[in-house]
Amino acid sequence: MTCPLCTASDTPLITTAVPGGPVDASADICGICADQLDNPSPDHFRALASTMWSEDPAIQVLAARTLSKIAEPWATDLADQLYLDDDTRAWADNVPEQTDHKDSNGQPLSNGDTVVLIKDLPVKGGGFTAKRGTAVHKISLVHDNPAHIEGRVEGQRIVILTEFVKKR
Questions:
Q1: Within-domain flag for 61
Q2: 57-69 vs 73-81: helix crossing angle, rounded to 10
């Protein structure tokens, strides 16, 4: 497989969430790109000159966000040339606030995300067990503790440890 951002070939692709846009938006990119989205290496992303023209809106958004983080003249020039339709531009500009809340895979969590439980969790005081695979919609972040989120399971609002969820 070829990475749609850096054009590296014969590398496993990782499904990476592209927050701020359509629900469940994601892109399959190489592990190096996924690791460098927050702090991109200019040399690794030189291929954006061609890949930013992808027809996949998620790739367009990742390209726009990555170019905006690279402090090199060539990246600024490419960002100025990149045309995005109004909806895709709004998505690219809608960067969710950075939090320390991360799921079990290290993906950042935001208010309103949907997560899935990766383990059966006994709910203290609730008298039931939240089963593995249960989707928890519209989570809330506990701002003073990055290891906790809140969500509604079986009609009850509960606190869940982030180590037991994965972002959907």
A1: yes
A2: 140
